[in-house]
Design a protein that fits this description.
The chain has three helices and no strands. It has one domain. It is an all-alpha fold and 65 residues long.
Length: 65
């Protein structure tokens, strides 16, 4: 299904169907994001960010939440 076909299908949803679709799509996007973060973490792609955060913490450049 193309993006144009999806746009057309979404444009004719009832308000209730649109609400259900938005909830489903938000959940779908969050799950995609979680998978990407997990893959990046497992591959070591985020290590430089962790190292920088730990460096800032040890140097006292952080604040408690």
């Amino acid at each position: 299904m193309s993006v144009k076909e999806l746009e057309k299908a979404v444009s004719v949803l009832s308000p209730e169907e649109l609400r259900e679709f938005r909830v489903w799509f938000a959940d779908f996007e969050m799950a995609q994001w979680d998978r990407e973060i997990e893959q990046d973490s497992n591959s070591g792609r985020l290590d430089h960010l962790i190292d920088k955060a730990m460096e800032d913490y040890r140097a006292g450049r952080t604040t408690d939440l």
